[in-house]
What does this fold into?
Amino acid sequence: MKFKTKSKSYQMDMTAMIDIVFLLIAFFTVLINFSDAEQNERITLPISELAKPPETPPSEPIILHVLGNGNVIYGTQEYTPEALDKQIAFHMRFLNAMKIPLKRVTVIVRADGDCQAGKVQDVIELCQRHRLENFKLRARQNDQ
It folds into this structure.
Protein backbone atom coordinates (compact mmCIF):
# COMPACT_ATOMS: atom_id res chain seq x y z
CA MET A 1 0.00 0.00 0.00
CA LYS A 2 1.30 3.39 -0.99
CA PHE A 3 0.80 6.46 1.20
CA LYS A 4 0.84 9.91 -0.16
CA THR A 5 2.31 12.56 2.04
CA LYS A 6 1.97 16.18 1.49
CA SER A 7 5.31 17.86 1.25
CA LYS A 8 5.35 21.19 2.89
CA SER A 9 7.83 23.75 1.73
CA TYR A 10 9.18 26.12 4.27
CA GLN A 11 10.57 29.51 3.44
CA MET A 12 12.64 31.53 5.81
CA ASP A 13 13.02 35.26 5.64
CA MET A 14 16.81 35.79 5.48
CA THR A 15 16.68 39.56 6.02
CA ALA A 16 17.15 39.32 9.77
CA MET A 17 19.98 36.78 9.35
CA ILE A 18 21.82 39.05 6.92
CA ASP A 19 21.39 42.00 9.30
CA ILE A 20 22.94 39.99 12.14
CA VAL A 21 25.88 38.91 9.96
CA PHE A 22 26.64 42.50 8.99
CA LEU A 23 26.40 43.63 12.60
CA LEU A 24 28.85 40.91 13.63
CA ILE A 25 31.25 41.91 10.86
CA ALA A 26 31.11 45.54 11.99
CA PHE A 27 31.58 44.53 15.64
CA PHE A 28 34.67 42.40 14.99
CA THR A 29 36.13 44.99 12.63
CA VAL A 30 36.11 47.49 15.47
CA LEU A 31 37.76 45.02 17.85
CA ILE A 32 40.64 44.08 15.55
CA ASN A 33 44.09 44.92 16.89
CA PHE A 34 45.51 47.51 14.53
CA SER A 35 49.16 46.95 15.50
CA ASP A 36 50.09 47.06 11.80
CA ALA A 37 48.70 50.60 11.69
CA GLU A 38 51.83 51.91 13.38
CA GLN A 39 54.01 50.70 10.52
CA ASN A 40 55.25 52.79 7.62
CA GLU A 41 56.58 51.29 4.40
CA ARG A 42 59.28 53.99 4.15
CA ILE A 43 60.93 52.73 7.35
CA THR A 44 63.14 49.64 7.37
CA LEU A 45 63.75 48.76 10.99
CA PRO A 46 67.22 47.59 12.03
CA ILE A 47 67.64 43.98 13.17
CA SER A 48 68.41 43.44 16.84
CA GLU A 49 69.21 40.36 18.89
CA LEU A 50 67.46 41.94 21.88
CA ALA A 51 64.22 42.89 20.09
CA LYS A 52 61.06 41.30 21.44
CA PRO A 53 57.37 41.93 20.86
CA PRO A 54 55.68 44.30 23.31
CA GLU A 55 53.94 42.55 26.19
CA THR A 56 51.06 45.01 26.33
CA PRO A 57 50.12 47.78 23.93
CA PRO A 58 50.67 51.31 25.25
CA SER A 59 47.50 53.10 26.32
CA GLU A 60 48.33 56.49 24.75
CA PRO A 61 50.93 56.00 22.00
CA ILE A 62 52.64 58.74 20.02
CA ILE A 63 54.27 57.04 17.04
CA LEU A 64 57.23 58.77 15.40
CA HIS A 65 58.92 57.35 12.28
CA VAL A 66 62.45 58.75 11.91
CA LEU A 67 63.64 58.67 8.30
CA GLY A 68 67.24 58.28 7.20
CA ASN A 69 67.53 62.03 6.47
CA GLY A 70 66.41 62.95 10.01
CA ASN A 71 62.90 64.04 9.11
CA VAL A 72 60.07 62.50 11.11
CA ILE A 73 56.73 61.10 9.99
CA TYR A 74 54.09 61.90 12.59
CA GLY A 75 50.57 60.82 11.71
CA THR A 76 50.57 60.94 7.93
CA GLN A 77 52.80 63.99 7.44
CA GLU A 78 56.57 64.29 7.18
CA TYR A 79 58.09 67.02 9.37
CA THR A 80 61.49 68.55 9.90
CA PRO A 81 62.59 68.45 13.56
CA GLU A 82 61.64 72.14 13.94
CA ALA A 83 58.15 71.58 12.53
CA LEU A 84 57.77 68.44 14.65
CA ASP A 85 58.36 70.54 17.76
CA LYS A 86 55.22 72.55 16.95
CA GLN A 87 53.19 69.38 16.30
CA ILE A 88 54.26 67.79 19.59
CA ALA A 89 53.38 71.05 21.40
CA PHE A 90 49.92 70.94 19.80
CA HIS A 91 49.52 67.29 20.85
CA MET A 92 50.54 68.18 24.41
CA ARG A 93 47.83 70.87 24.54
CA PHE A 94 45.34 68.24 23.40
CA LEU A 95 46.48 65.80 26.11
CA ASN A 96 46.16 68.54 28.73
CA ALA A 97 42.68 69.44 27.52
CA MET A 98 41.64 65.78 27.70
CA LYS A 99 43.23 65.50 31.18
CA ILE A 100 45.38 62.54 30.12
CA PRO A 101 48.34 62.14 32.50
CA LEU A 102 51.74 62.21 30.80
CA LYS A 103 52.75 59.00 32.56
CA ARG A 104 50.24 57.14 30.37
CA VAL A 105 51.73 58.53 27.15
CA THR A 106 54.36 56.38 25.43
CA VAL A 107 56.45 57.67 22.53
CA ILE A 108 57.17 54.86 20.08
CA VAL A 109 60.22 55.66 17.95
CA ARG A 110 60.57 53.67 14.75
CA ALA A 111 63.84 54.70 13.13
CA ASP A 112 65.04 53.60 9.72
CA GLY A 113 68.07 51.31 9.73
CA ASP A 114 70.02 53.96 7.76
CA CYS A 115 69.24 56.72 10.27
CA GLN A 116 72.10 57.97 12.43
CA ALA A 117 71.72 57.38 16.16
CA GLY A 118 72.25 61.11 16.82
CA LYS A 119 69.11 61.99 14.84
CA VAL A 120 67.08 59.54 16.92
CA GLN A 121 68.54 61.05 20.07
CA ASP A 122 67.55 64.53 18.84
CA VAL A 123 63.94 63.37 18.42
CA ILE A 124 63.94 61.86 21.93
CA GLU A 125 65.36 65.08 23.40
CA LEU A 126 62.70 67.09 21.57
CA CYS A 127 60.01 64.95 23.20
CA GLN A 128 61.68 65.24 26.61
CA ARG A 129 61.51 69.04 26.35
CA HIS A 130 57.73 68.57 26.23
CA ARG A 131 57.88 66.51 29.46
CA LEU A 132 57.38 63.13 27.77
CA GLU A 133 59.15 60.37 29.70
CA ASN A 134 58.21 56.94 28.34
CA PHE A 135 59.94 55.80 25.18
CA LYS A 136 60.00 52.55 23.24
CA LEU A 137 62.36 51.94 20.35
CA ARG A 138 61.26 49.53 17.65
CA ALA A 139 63.53 47.04 15.89
CA ARG A 140 63.06 43.80 13.99
CA GLN A 141 63.78 40.47 15.63
CA ASN A 142 66.64 38.41 14.27
CA ASP A 143 65.04 35.44 12.49
CA GLN A 144 67.87 33.04 13.24
